[in-house]
């Protein structure tokens, strides 16, 4: 009986001390960025089309321009405007479901569609949308490496 307990104890100890498998290792996606006027611009695929997006950790939603969303014209959407240092939205803002793609990782997400023409002109930077918290919540970590000019998103 004592021998059986020793064997059972040894098996449990061996099992507990085994290293964790790397089968479920977190995947990291590295996106090069361009910094313009303090904005981090990355390229992500939305519905299979590469779009230039601002990474904005202070934004709640994901915004895609009416032009990038396709089949919606500017007259059907609200507008994102800038007045001095304040950015605000005017008009209605329809939602659309889109597919984001980072390498082999794909996920569907609801986005707000807005006209970004005025904001593009005022800021002086051409971009197709904003990646806010709704996008970033799909990942555990966000790392910005300013020297390498990359944004790393880890599942």
What count of helical segments does DSSP give? 4
Low-confidence stretches: none
Distance between the termini: 48 Å
Q: Return Rg in Å.
A: 23 Å
DSSP strand tally = 11
Q: Which strand order do you get reading across the main beta sheet?
A: 2-3-9-4-8-7
The major beta sheet can be summarized as: 6 strands, mixed, barrel
Sum this structure up briefly.
The chain is α+β, with helices and mostly antiparallel strands and 155 residues long.
Report on the architecture of this protein.
There is one protein chain. This protein has helices at residues 2-16, 66-69, 117-123, 133-136, and strands at residues 28-36, 39-46, 49-55, 63-65, 78-83, 86-90, 95-102, 105-115, 129-131, 141-145, 150-154. It contains four helices and eleven strands. Helices cover 19% and strands 45% of the residues. With 155 residues, it is α+β, with helices and mostly antiparallel strands. The longest helix is centred in the N-terminal third of the chain and has 15 residues, at 2-16. The chain has a six-stranded mixed β-barrel.
